[in-house]
Amino acid sequence: MDSIHDLIPHRPPFLFVDEILSVDENRIHATRLISEEEDFFKGHFPGKPIMPGVLICEAIFQTGALLMSRRSDAPKDHVPVITRINNVKLKRAVRPGDRLEMQAEVTEQSGAAWYMKGKASVAGQTILTLDFAAMLVEDAQ
């Protein structure tokens, strides 16, 4: 399996995927151990740390980007970008020490547009669900 660093341009401290657990043509399951040392916990919230919901969304987006980049029809000189976010439902908090599991599934692909649904969970409990769209765009390095 390709390295995460080979598939997407994200790097620490803004890389929110540690490991790909499983992947096929249209689905991916990945994970991230949420450390108490995460920079965002310094301000969100001191003494009562909670992972910001937008970063949980980002972890799902990066998981979807990994799926897109692994596809054989994905141009290797393109990077994934989010174009739409819908139906975000945040149900529980993510705290230091949690093992965040992310799933993304392609529901439709039309030209350059990829439509997906995503889910984040901890210990089998759903944390967040959403629908999103993304495109692979030429890397303008």
TrEMBL record:
**Gene3D superfamilies, A to Z:** Hotdog Thioesterase
Q: Keyword set for this entry?
A: Lyase
SUPFAM superfamilies assigned: Thioesterase/thiol ester dehydrase-isomerase
Which molecular-function annotation in GO is an example for this chain?
A: lyase activity
By its UniProt entry, which InterPro entries does this protein fall under?
A: FabA_FabZ, HotDog_dom_sf
Lineage: superkingdom: Bacteria
Supply the name of the protein.
Answer: Beta-hydroxyacyl-ACP dehydratase
Q: Which organism is it from?
A: Candidatus Nitrohelix vancouverensis
